[in-house]
Design brief:
- It contains five helices and eight strands, in the order E-E-H-H-H-E-E-E-H-E-H-E-E.
- By secondary structure, the chain is α+β, with helices and mostly antiparallel strands.
- It has a single domain, classed as Gcn5-related N-acetyltransferase (GNAT) (Aminopeptidase, 3-Layer(aba) Sandwich).
- It has an eight-stranded mixed sheet, with helices on one face.
- The radius of gyration is 16 Å and the shape is globular.
Length: 186
Amino acid sequence: MIPLITQTPRLTILAASRALLTAELHKPQYFPTLLGAAIPTDWPPGNYDLTAMQYDLEQLTAGGRTAAGWYGWYALRKATDDTPRTLVGVGGFQGPPDAAGLAELTYSLAAEWRGQGLGTELVAGLVQQAAATGMVRLLVAHTEVDNLAAQQVLLHNGFASVGLDINSRLRFERAVEPAADTALND
């Protein structure tokens, strides 16, 4: 079974569930309680919109347990003395890897949490998660040409730019080695 929580130094990265996505979409007043975290005022961030939420929910519903961990992941900043546990971003994969082991990674941070290295940490956690599955051999990510911050996040996580895709976005790739028996769930 794929681990559904990944820990990084400042983040708990939690796989989306049908219950969480249903609350986020249809009963947002319950979402922070179910998630156990404060929600940023500008939620949802970036390209993570109602269409993305609905897609993830549909995929988790159709795929059952085998779909868990292959769609949305919530990035929760761990509580500190000054800050409660807070939802800072989302990320994940566009689905399970194909037969060759290729999976596409996406992520987005709430505006108030950008510029603090949390995007880099979120992507690192997702790369760690992909490696832990033993199924992913190559990760792909896309950014807009003018989004230098997103490009830096990917470069800091070992991705290399391989040119433009058919939508004139930059395509980044990174090989993934299966993880040795590591403890993702501290």
